[in-house]
Request: fold
Amino acid sequence: MQKLIKDLIQKNNTKILLIVLDGLGGLPVNGKTELEIANKPNLDALAKKSACGLHIPVAMGITPGSGPGHLSLFGYDPVEWQIGRGVLEALGLGIELKKTDIAIRVNYATIENGIVKDRRAGRIPTNESRKITERLQKKIKKIDNVEIIFRPGMEHRFAAVLRFPKPLPKGSASIKDTDPQKEGKRPVPVTSETPQAEKVAKVVEKLISSILDIIKNEPAANFILLRGFSQVPDIPHFEEVYGLKPLCIAIYPMYRGLARLIGMNAPTLKGDIREEIDFLKKNYADYDFFFLHVKKIDSYAEDGNFKGKALKIGEFDSALPEILNLNPDVLIITGDHSTPSVLKSHSWHPVPVLLNSPYVLGNTSKAFSERECLKGEFSIFPTVNLMPLALANAGRLKKFGA
Amino acid sequence: MQKLIKDLIQKNNTKILLIVLDGLGGLPVNGKTELEIANKPNLDALAKKSACGLHIPVAMGITPGSGPGHLSLFGYDPVEWQIGRGVLEALGLGIELKKTDIAIRVNYATIENGIVKDRRAGRIPTNESRKITERLQKKIKKIDNVEIIFRPGMEHRFAAVLRFPKPLPKGSASIKDTDPQKEGKRPVPVTSETPQAEKVAKVVEKLISSILDIIKNEPAANFILLRGFSQVPDIPHFEEVYGLKPLCIAIYPMYRGLARLIGMNAPTLKGDIREEIDFLKKNYADYDFFFLHVKKIDSYAEDGNFKGKALKIGEFDSALPEILNLNPDVLIITGDHSTPSVLKSHSWHPVPVLLNSPYVLGNTSKAFSERECLKGEFSIFPTVNLMPLALANAGRLKKFGA
Reply:
């Protein structure tokens, strides 16, 4: 699909604004969903005159992680482009990854006589593990000619990145997790699963032994388990595929990291929706495509806070008129996946979406909700089709065939 | 898709119940379909609080046989996994097929001076042909080291199975039909189309000559025509793919046979819906997945009996509360294909479906019918997506990607 699109691209001066309300879709409590109880007159009015529908990020019944959810929104097949766990962890902790990197998720663990006693080092408190990780970074900067980057995470978790001087061949990250998955077992030795990974495996072995030298006398965190070895995928850049100059506006590092993977400009930004809108306005003249990520709606849903999620939707609704004042040629408001508060987690349910442009039917959905979007002119469709729809509505796609 | 699913499976104690009302979907007579005139308060009430939709077993416009219809319901791509006609005939007649079998549909025919005079031996009555087939089985038990199994069918039809001592390579059943398709022609000689089929072809030649020795003096059935040579497909087992222990509850042999092909436990069962429900209850604790097949709705439709079909739907509706009392975590009610009474045959029309679980939107369809299911939260979708949806609603699928 992306190949087809690439051949049809034509440039113009239109602006496309994609607003992702993270975890938007929900499920009813007492008959109504979060969207249905939210106070959101602006979203409802907009839905009435927009093309509405529900999109499926990966496939029916499949619950997407944030990686697949966003890649689909950007028009990338999430099954073809799977982002490794190590890469996502590193992105989430704010490491700017390069094409020469191998990223790893690491757990502090407790070992006794060669047997893993606790895979999470008793869920060591974040402020303690952070100190250990900072100590590691001070003492370990390079293994051979490979730069080593550590970044503390929550509790027992941290990220490690091996930055090689040159790009590595595909398959270089095919190394087995050293985590035995169960307590009472020996850690798995560093094992490369492809010939290309052997070089990396050697560096990993040296890295582990250097780390153990430093932490071996820690009371709980006296060992490490490594998981999710992965390389940055060699994914085509957004601008190259769509001819759009993209800006990512996101507070959370992982979403900026995902955007950077496909070559979006994604400056660090602190604050909330207020700062995001200011940033959007300030940069509006300089880009064609804006990905604005709103995190908090998902956070409340993940906590099972049904009313909180609805309130956060209402908060976004209050900010909407200011965004509408920018008059983007194409405005899309949707989520990267559903997070029903009753499930307290991502879910497989299709995600409500509205697309506003001068070229929609409109008048099919009476409000912005799961049930009203079902009546919309997009019906239910794969998420990867959203980018072609955005481009078409922006007049940026030529006719296919004569 | 099944590969993706397999990697995401997580086990728990939930129960999934799939009820297949054979030939469920219909077409209107005087403006209303069989489902729309049926007296079915329980189904309608359930539809209101369920996820509804319509599913397409093979592709838009394609009328599925029972094989493809059921394989799709079980999540198997029916174009990838085609079940040979010989295999389906043998399953339909109650033969338990093994991986070492070659199954064949056979017609009694009338031959005169080497020319096929009647391809169906004057549609010889079932009780007559049955006697001949029983005589064949008495006289022919083995050809070389290959066990031969005959099973009488309706009128001129019967099934023959060659049971080899060891599994045969793929392609071993690639033998041309010996049926010339038209009267007045010579029968087609036994012709293998692949090198792997030569061994089988030799056994078939010997089998034909042994049979002709026995029937050559029959007045009508003095010849046989062989069609649909086929092997049991090497299809992944249901339990292996989904991690669900499955039970098939079906009165008709073909549906049990189909279920056995994918490794379902499918004990012989006599009776009707009453006996099926008793059997379900008795075995409810011992399985995770139940496929309950209700045949009669299709039979009335195939006879063109519009009201009869509606009455049978109503009969199932009366039994529904007893099934609901089991409180399955996920309950799906649907068909394997549509059989509109006005067509007196299977049809290409999408099949109504409802899925009930605690994790559906609900309140989109006011009743269980073709037109109301169209308003449902599943919209129209490929049948193979039903199993992923069932698993998701049962909490049996992990998140895809991080």
